[in-house]
Write a structure and sequence with these properties.
This protein is of the alpha+beta class and 182 residues long. 30% of the residues lie in helices and 19% in strands. Strand 3 and strand 4 form a beta hairpin.
């Protein structure tokens, strides 16, 4: 049974794409990094949802994952697939979906680097992040924005790679009626 959703607190990170080192996006053997094909949406969603569902840092965020991440991944596969895969043999084990032209939230890294639980702690998330930043830079972008839950392992260690810096998100005050009712 899914844990009910609660308000999702996020912190945004910004990368200056000119500062991303080239060659950082090489996975160790036997893993292969490649662009996803337009027909591979189901594979991308399978890995992304598994990655989020099995990560305790995202527990209770089902509404955010469905409304923002899944919808964004579907947009990333719209006209042309802007998604990267890491494969181990024929199995897709890592995914990073991105949008060169972000939506209203300004986020380019839609899913962030998602790696199946049994393949974590092998540097594959860093490879996906570097490859995604390189792909965005090759499209002429000067910077990229991603988001993650605050105070998580991803926020502390992964997002700071390649010059990622936290971005202040303005706090929106609650309406008086909502504050009284709460």
């Amino acid at each position: 049974m899914a844990i009910p959703s609660k308000p999702t607190k996020l912190v945004k990170f910004r990368w200056k794409l000119s500062q991303v080192p080239t060659g950082a996006a090489q996975p160790p053997k036997p893993y292969v990094l490649r662009a996803a094909g337009e027909q591979e949406l189901a594979d991308a969603l399978r890995v992304i949802l598994s990655s989020y569902e099995l990560d305790p840092e995202w527990s209770g965020c089902a509404a955010h994952i469905e409304e923002c991440v899944v919808a964004g991944v579907k947009r990333a596969f719209g006209d042309e697939a802007t998604c990267l895969f890491i494969q181990h043999g024929n199995r897709v084990i890592g995914v990073s979906a991105y949008l060169p032209e972000p939506g209203n939230d300004g986020v380019h890294l839609i899913s962030g680097p998602c790696v199946l639980a049994e393949y974590r702690n092998r540097g594959l998330g860093a490879v996906l992040l570097a490859a995604t930043l390189e792909a965005l830079g090759s499209r002429g972008l000067a910077e990229a924005i991603g988001q993650v839950r605050p105070n998580t392992v991803s926020a502390k260690f992964l997002c700071s790679k390649f010059g990622g810096q936290p971005v202040a998100i303005p706090q929106i005050p609650l309406p008086i009626e909502a504050a009284v009712a709460a």
